[in-house]
Amino acid sequence: MNGLLCKVVNRRTILSFCRSEGNFGILSLNTNEKYNERIVTSHKLDTRNQGAFIMHGNNKRQRNSFIDFYTPPPPPDVLSVKCGDLWQGYLGMYVRLRGRIVKARLGRFLEIRDSRGIAQLVADDDNPRMLRMFQSIPIDSYITVYGIVRSRLTPNKSIPTGYVELHVEDIRDVDYPMDENGSGPNQRRRLNTSAPAAPVSRTVTSIEFKKINGSKGLLDRLNNRLTTCGELRSIDVGKHVTLVGWIDRKKHGKFLHLRDGYGQTQIVIDNENPVIKQTVAAINADSFVLVKGHVVSRPSSNKNTAFETGDIEVLVEEFQMLDPELPYDGPILPQNQVQSETEPMDIANNTVETSQQQKSAPKTPKVNTFTNRTHTCGELGDKDIGKEVVLCGWLEFERMRKFFTLRDGYGCTQIMLPDDLGEKLRIETIPFESILQVKGTVMGRPPGMRNETMATGGIEVILSDLQILNKAKSKLPIEIREHNRAKEPLRLEYRYIDLRFSDMQKNLRTRSKVLMKMREYLINHAGFVEVETPTLFRRSPGGAQEFVVPSRKPGHFYSLVQSPQQLKQMLMVGAIDRYFQIARCYRDEATRPDRQPEFTQLDVELSFSDRDKIMELIEKVLVNCWPDFCGALNTPFPRLTYDQAMADYGTDKPDIRFAMKLIDITKSIELNPELKEGHKNFGSSAILIKFPHSSLPNQLKENLNNIAKQYPKTKFVTSKIVPDVSQWIEGGLTRLVGQDVTKALSSELHLEDNDLLLFAYGDKEQSQLLMGRVRVAMRQSMEVRGIYTPDTSFSLCWVLDFPLLSEGEKEGTFESVHHPFTAPHPDDMHLLHAQKDLPKIRSLAYDLVLNGQEIGGGSIRIHDPNLQKLIIQDLLKLDITEFNHMLDALRSGCPPHGGIALGIDRLLAIMCNVESIRDVIAFPKGFDGKDHLSKAPMPITEAEKELYNIEIKVPEKVTEKVTETGNSSSKSAENTNTSLNESGTTETIKAMS
């Protein structure tokens, strides 16, 4: 090996560059006085890596060894095993364990625990390095170990793993428990001394800020450093570094521990250099020093696994004590070099920005203008380190009388109390949820204390002043704790407290953003006019139940509008040709998770348009307002006819994210004429589940049978193809439907052994509806059982060509499927004028469906007064005088027009992935329809009754006669649903109408 001597660092180490056969490297001749050994290493340098050759030498003995600076990967046949699963079946195998140390014995035994149990670790006597590691790792540390499973000499029969133990050959990762200062061996962090350090900010931490005691020169020097004491690894060997910190510990006079806010590094000084020796002797605990030198690898026997920098040390070339009074005159780093790689996020500004082109609003609204704060609690990050800030918010947590968390609607920030303020303020005496205003300086957290789950987890604010703006009572009815959420009635009663939860903040701010984007597109890009229409209107016959509002005129009442339908049509007559409104609507109906007595909808109407153009408009509105966290929307949305949706999915609001389409088996079932008797419109639909997913758990079977009971005009059958197809054809199902039917089903569906067939027959519409619900129930069961992964995507589709009319409860009567103002399909006008086959008349109505839920509905309207009168008076049999105002408007020159309404509450609930629309409404009604906050509805006074001419009559209780069960048993047995279980026997379920 030929080399060129470049520099003699000190007596202990000689550095030189060497060249051998075209390979370049760094050679270090190192005399280790303590361990008295000589190691010659060679390491090739390339463009990807910088390494060093280290040669330790003495005259007593020599040995050659190759040192690899990188932790080797585990063997390919390593088995990852839970601690509690270690047993004799693993004897002799090389395994990996991870757990928390719960016990240490005799310096060579450790017991670690995970969720499955306890395992014993052993360090062999002939492995002194492992023995030292066992003795240096504290209790409660989490470690990852690799080793060989062997039998115990003395089994411990009290635990399942007591017959074996793991003889450890390697310890890869150590997570130390965290102490108060976030430093030292108790600091919880992930230890890997060979891997490169994770990228971190190098700005001043709170520990350093306290240490510099207000020195501007030291603050600037720390903010402009290139390397910290905690980030050096074996990959940095050979580098020349400059470090700033304080001496934490001296060892043997020549080995010092240099510490900063990010960790510590061992430095080695030359005791024969009188200048350095004199400087080291003069330093104290508060002294800041500057160290320059080369990073070298420690001898293998001298490595310290207790610290992340334990594989290396720095050979000191320059050692200087820093004067805190002197200004910093070194290079200034660009702002982006001292800034964290991850910008802080906050709920208000970043979570609901869309990725579309139409964006007029700024990304970061100035939410701190016109307030007494300088920042919100959710926006501070590494870029703000060193700034003086004022924050306002609610006291969320307090710990150790030294830290507390301040929360507002945008996030939360950790505040640290200096020692001189801790006793004075006594933060532990302030009740949680009190309103505070704090002033302080932003500092970076030590690396081991950075909280990646918080947007502001990389910083904390060093408190300088605190004001209590409003002290909360000591015991609130609701605690703002995610792990112990109150029940919904209590949440609704104290909604003003419940709104402080982060998910409620996100939901309501998302709602505001979405509505703003809708308005922005409709007004700025599509030229619509926002018009407010009355809430108090007249009763509309033929629709949902309405809320009535008394007036002072005896016997006269207003009604709260179900929707602005008639009003927006009259706006079209009035030449407001492009109208929209964020409308409040009211319906006196039972409350459900997706329904409220009062709700919000985006109401849109425009003239001189058609169905396709209106659907295209709504697609563009949704694309523009769609939040980033929901992913991108693909347009145009798929379109299905009503008949197609019912045939394929068994519902007019299909979830098209998964297949499992219904199969029409009517022709096969009709081979047995007896099965279609008594049905005007007979039909049969099926679902085929192929093996191996064809199991039918008992709970699912019970659920399906309960669904079937709700469709009395059908029979529901489940049958598994066992033991094989040929025997199934002649099996139990044949007794129910006949052999001709089973043969036809086998041929039509290509049945195979162990397939599962589910089908319903009877009334066509009810059979489709039943199988549509079975389809959804089967998919949900498969997701729960892990057969399919739950689909969290968003899939929209249009459903078109709805029937115009449906049969009413009384024979010979009809009702509007949508509303009386929906235009019939032009291709079916001949049926309308002939007034025959009325259920077959299609309409120009369209629904928008998202993930199986209807989020919008609209239609082209009737603008011909004669056609409108025909439908209201002749077909629906409604009192025409109730609609005179509408007919007069149509006779006054009404343009062709159409529109749509989107349910904002339901749309936001799906976007925010919540189960109920109550979670996206600030003050919703409860499941019982009541307002739990104000206790409405409430009785009114006698004076108010007199003012509105109201007299209250309490209805008498009606005593229902209880009929004997024997009288109804024969009738209930007439209508049954039948299912075949997996063994081929028949199960009969009484149908309930």
TrEMBL record:
| SUPFAM superfamilies per UniProt | Class II aaRS and biotin synthetases, GAD domain-like, Nucleic acid-binding proteins
A GO cellular component annotation in the UniProt record: mitochondrion
User: What keywords are annotated for this sequence in UniProt?
Assistant: Aminoacyl-tRNA synthetase, ATP-binding, Ligase, Nucleotide-binding, Protein biosynthesis
GO BP term (any one):
aspartyl-tRNA aminoacylation
Q: What is this protein called?
A: CSON007242 protein
Residue ranges spanning the membrane: these are: none
Keyword Ligase attached: yes
Chain segments carrying region Disordered: 959-993
**Which GO-annotated molecular functions does the record name?**
aspartate-tRNA ligase activity; ATP binding; nucleic acid binding
Specify the Aminoacyl-transfer RNA synthetases class-II family profile domain's residue ranges. Answer: 508-924
Which NCBIfam families does the entry link to? aspS_bact, PRK00476.1
Which organism does this sequence originate in?
Culicoides sonorensis
Family (UniProt): Belongs to the class-II aminoacyl-tRNA synthetase family. Type 1 subfamily.
Q: Which domain of life is it from?
A: Eukaryota
Q: State the InterPro entries in the record.
A: Aa-tRNA-synt_II, aa-tRNA-synth_II, aa-tRNA-synth_II/BPL/LPL, Asp-tRNA-ligase_1, Asp-tRNA-ligase_1_N, Asp/Asn-tRNA-synth_IIb, GAD-like_sf, NA-bd_OB-fold
CDD domains, A to Z = Asp_Lys_Asn_RS_N, EcAspRS_like_N
- Provide ranges: composition bias, Polar residues: 964-993
